[in-house]
Amino acid sequence: MLVVSNYHYIRPHFEAPYPSIFGVTPEQFETQLLLLKSEFVPITPKQFVSNFHQILADSQKYLLITFDDGLREQYEYALPILDTLEMEALFFANSLYYDQQKVSTVHKLHLIRSQIASSLLLQQIEDELDLHLSDKEKESALATYIYDTSEAATVKYLLNFKMDFAQQERFANQMFASYFEEENVGPELYFTRQQLVDLAQRNCLGSHTHSHYPLGLLSQEKVHAEIEKTLHIFEKITNHRPLAISYPYGTYEAAPEHVSNLAKQSGHSVGFMATRGLNDQFTDPLRLHRFDCNDLPGGKNYTKQLW
Questions:
Q1: Which residues contact 301 (CB under 8 A, 6 or more apart)?
Q2: Is 227:248 a contact under the CB 8 Å cutoff?
Q3: Residue 262 has what DSSP assignment?
Q4: Residue among 33, 67, 83, 68 at smallest CA distance from 297
Q5: What is the pLDDT of residues 233-270, one digit of tens each?
Q6: Helix-strand-coil percent breakdown of the chain, rounded to 5?
Q7: pLDDT-based confidence at residue 302 (cuts at 50, 70, 90)
Q8: Which CA distances in Å does 212 have to 93, 96, 107?
Q9: By percentage, how much of the chain surpasses pLDDT 70?
Q10: Half-sphere exposure of 59 (CA within 13 A, CB side)
């Protein structure tokens, strides 16, 4: 049986003009790892990928740590803690930045919302895209984003539920170009090439596909290209193939079954969703469940009801 704890941002603090990037501090990360080690048996990425059928069928609860998005702060803050505790993790990265020096749409939106007032973003969305929420949708927004202000919740709801991905991408590109220099953001945000090489040599580098698109919205041909391009780029940089794949966004809509079938055709034996749950012998190894770190012991949303 396998429990997977997934992380994104890790940094000493998350101060910003407008809170929108959330994660864990190095201290919180280390504290949680110690708690998880006391409840589960840590396993390395190579051990799992080499023996996943046996591990999933075992009654013992094994633990695997994963990180999505290939963020430089993961290497600089999380990896030293993992080394100290003699643990390993799978670091899933996108290849877009190493191919075109571009920041992915999801990170553009995170950065935009951290530096621009929600009132201004809301005005831009309403004026330029003519998107608005009904009273019922406003209630849903507040219920969904319970820790946000009314305006911030409305912006997030419009972005995530009212825009299609093409609209999101256009909006993100327009706003990002007005406030940021993309060539300066990428080097600070993503793994360096040498960090990629080191993670690959450690057997800890995974694929998060090329562009961080929700693959379920793409044609099968484009999904295949998203998967294959990352394999090619990372193998060229590191001389290693990514050990596994995690699907961007990781929902059933973003990664329907044909996506994991295409991942298998490209040579992946293990793939990770973002759906919560334990993994056992009945779990498809190309569609493994992961808990957000906040849902596990030491996380802010932890409840024993999950078990």
A1: 292, 294, 295
A2: no
A3: H
A4: 33
A5: 999 999 999 999 999 999 999 999 999 999 999 999 99
A6: 50, 10, 35
A7: confident
A8: 9, 8, 10
A9: 99
A10: 0
To which residue do tokens 């643990």 refer?
Answer: 87
Confirm if 33 and 81 have CB atoms less than 8 A apart: yes
Whether this prediction's pTM lies above 0.85 is answered by: yes
CA–CA gap between residue 125 and residue 129 (Å, rounded): 5
Residues 168, 159 contacting (CB under 8 angstroms): yes
Q: For the range 98-102, what are the long-range contacts, defined as Cβ-Cβ under 8 Å and sequence gap of 24 or more?
A: 98/193, 98/196, 98/233, 98/234, 98/237, 99/210, 99/229, 99/233, 101/182, 101/183, 101/186, 102/182, 102/186
Close Cβ partners of 27 (under 8 Å, ≥ 6 residues apart): none
89 pLDDT higher than 90: yes
Q: How does the average pLDDT of the chain come out, rounded?
A: 94
At 226, list the tokens. 């998203």
Tokens of 293: 């770190």
10 Å CB burial of residue 25 (0-12, 13-18, 19+) is: middle
